[in-house]
Amino acid sequence: MATARTENVDPPAMGLNKQNGQLRGQTKPASVQPGSSTQPKVLGATQKAGTASQARGTIKFGDDWKKSLQLPPKDTRVKTSDVTATKGNEFEDYCLKRELLMGIFEMGWEKPSPVQEESIPIALSGRDILARAKNGTGKSGAYLIPLLERIDLKKDYIQAMVVVPTRELALQVSQICIQISKHLGGVKVMATTGGTNLRDDIMRLDEIVHVIVATPGRILDLIQKGVARVDRVQMMVMDEADKLLSQDFVVLIEDIISFLAKNRQILLYSATFPISVQKFMTNYLQKPYEINLMEELTLKGITQYYAYVTERQKVHCLNTLFSRLQINQSIIFCNSTQRVELLAKKITQLGYSCFYIHAKMMQEYRNRVFHDFRNGLCRNLVCTDLFTRGIDIQAVNVVINFDFPKNAETYLHRIGRSGRFGHFGLAINLITSEDRFNLKTIEDQLVTDIKPIPGSIDKGLYVAEFHSSAGDCEVEEVQERSGHQQDHT
């Protein structure tokens, strides 16, 4: 285990609105690693992705167009075989538009990852796809690149739609889409999610929109109102498809598809596919091309530890981890919204900067927390499973399960927030006596080895040496006497 200490600052001044999720002491921007992306300050609006003059005005036939690119700093970090075990293809091999290639390279994407190699040529051919690949291996690029390649700027209607389960993921995907397409000369991308003003979305749809990124409930509402015309959509993408086909969303998804043309293309991407996906595939996909890059489920770059503790020891443990680990940014998961807020308050009382986010917050506060954390304004984020789906913040190198999840699927998506795109990460699980069975079950189902944190042995259980100056730091109110509140998006 690393020994370098995270910055421990003076006790925080609790002056900000509690409900905006930003409880913090003296903040210091986290050291964002090369290749990490940022979220724009204006979120969810229709945005114009550059002008033709940006790409074509300065490039002449015979020029070395790559010399004109504004490339990010080269990412020299070691990567695992999850993203390096490729066939050796280049993005140029797929006959993509030069302007699209410019956006790809300026994103810092040098070569296609395995899922991109498998997916891009098939998606360009118009065939349905069912793709299973690990979290953080480039699934967004696997569908956004062919999607943007097929956009026809001469057509002033919605041509492609990306459906995602959470608002934060919708904002992230739309921003990536805008960045990649900025040289294409007029691709208009719109993000629409629940919790925002419906009237604003209606006004934006009065103008030209080529690509729409949405959560299921909001886009269905716009379709049923006759505002979003999707009858000419040529490609529908379902990111985190296993969640979209769960009981929470599947009826909405089926309703959305009923408004599409019969010759539409449907692409499904996820790290896990339950049995329900097979039924959906039979009913709605036409001879789909199946991609499975999941010989093992967990990312190779993530080291997993656990520590047996009592509920009263958890905050002691957390305080010691902060003091011993070299943390760029960390995400700390709890099993309910109430525990999220109370734990965030305890962390700030210990002197560490901390944000929190959950689905019961107002959307404007969720957007602000998401934006600021992506930009490195705080080291630690406490959240519910709202933040397990697709969120890509490459500076996050530590994930801590303050509350251990109940099933393997949730565990897999949680720890996948670290170790993004083949980089190394650390996952630490705080295990109480009630979690021991779930720990063993998850290890067996994921065929993974979660090791004990090196420490002393007490009554046959591994217990890390969590002695600190924090005092008796039990999060008393966090111990809920009834069942956990579920957090929905």
TrEMBL record:
Q: Which coarse location class describes where this protein primarily resides?
A: cytoplasm
Q: Which SUPFAM superfamilies match?
A: P-loop containing nucleoside triphosphate hydrolases (SSF52540)
Domain of life of the organism encoding this protein: Eukaryota
- Supply the source organism's classification: Eukaryota, Metazoa, Chordata, Craniata, Vertebrata
Cellular compartment(s): Cytoplasm, P-body
Q: What is this protein called?
A: RNA helicase
InterPro entries associated with the record: DEAD/DEAH_box_helicase_dom, Helicase_ATP-bd, Helicase_C-like, P-loop_NTPase, RNA-helicase_DEAD-box_CS, RNA_helicase_DEAD_Q_motif
EC class of the enzyme, as a word: hydrolase
Family of the protein in this entry = Belongs to the DEAD box helicase family. DDX6/DHH1 subfamily.
What EC number(s) is this enzyme filed under? Answer: 3.6.4.13
Keyword vocabulary terms for this entry: ATP-binding, Cytoplasm, Helicase, Hydrolase, Nucleotide-binding, RNA-binding
Region described as Disordered: 1-55
The UniProt annotation puts motif Q motif at 89-117
Residue limits of the Helicase C-terminal domain? Answer: 301-461
What GO cellular-component annotations does this UniProt entry give?
Answer: P-body
Instruction: List the catalysed reactions.
Output: ATP + H2O = ADP + phosphate + H(+)
Enumerate the spans annotated as DEAD-box RNA helicase Q domain: 89-117
Task: Write down the species.
Answer: Hippocampus comes (Tiger tail seahorse)
Instruction: List the molecular function annotations (GO) for this entry.
Output: ATP binding; hydrolase activity; RNA binding; RNA helicase activity
